[in-house]
Amino acid sequence: MNFFKTLFGGGEESSEEKKSQEDAKNFDILKYDGLRALKNGETDYSIKCFQHALSIKADDLEIVDYLSQAFMRNDQLNDAFEQLQILADAQPDNPKIFIRMANVAFMMNDYSAMADACEKALLIDSENSQIHYLYARACLGQGDSTNAVSMLTKAISLKKDYYDAYLLRGETLMDNGDYTSAEDDAKVLLDVTKDNEDVLLFKARLELKQSNDDNALKYYNLVIDADPFNADAIKERGELRKQLGDDAGAEEDFKQYGELAPKSDEDAKAKGKAEDGQDLIKSVEDAYKKNNPFGI
Description:
Helices cover 77% and strands 0% of the residues. It has helices spanning 2-7, 15-39, 43-56, 61-73, 77-90, 95-107, 111-124, 129-141, 145-158, 163-175, 179-192, 197-209, 213-226, 231-243, 247-271, 280-290. Mean pLDDT is 88; it is low at 1-9 and 268-285.
């Protein structure tokens, strides 16, 4: 090719062509080096790679997506949300991006931004059960339990085996004093997830709320059988034992709780857990895998 250029007076490649080729080469190196680092947990380095890649090709949405994930894993949630906003502006009809924004907003405890992301997602895909579930969480964060129950009911109507939605609705109904409806959700959950400690703890608390102390104790025992290190269940069982006059049993629970509580709090901070005990970092990463708009 260069021979013909020389022959017909074209000369060698222009400096612009060389720079374009060099930029393309560097972009690919940064992209794949950043991706390797991201997969290996080297988030600081992956962020630098992706940022440099975007300085070469600012409109590459795949890199923006990778960068949002790296920021999230590095606990730079505001930065992650900003990258997701870029994706949303570029693909306003992609509900998966708004689902991811809702998850990150939840981690930030920004329930207004979470609700806004859910509203936009619902305008695109009103039959998506996950969006209704996330919207319910946003409503609860804003103190709107009535709409939360409505959203959860809609989520369940769209996905009959959405047991997370049953659990959250049951807990919300219980907190609102609607024990009969909460019992209906508890029955569904117990029929299909008999050994799940979250379900058992919900049932124990529901029995306690209704002053069914013996049944409450039974379910607290089942929770602790399923997870001997469940600090909340141990503390609550201790309080119930104290109320029932079992001072020795209560003292034993309180002692064990005292040993578990500091480690439980430390683990919660280290893993970014919310008040409901969910490991949000893991849950959002799982959501990323399920709802990745670029198939990553």
